[in-house]
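Entry 14. Ran structure prediction on the chain below.
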Amino acid sequence: MIQRPQHSKGLLSFNALFGCFYAFLIVVYHNQ
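Output, structure tokens:
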């Protein structure tokens, strides 16, 4: 994974949060 110093930590945190949320949706979807 390439890390770019010019990217803000806010965007990185948003991407991480969205990734966790997306994974949560997948788990809920498969559990139904």
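DSSP finds one helix and no strands in the chain. Will compare against last week's run tomorrow.
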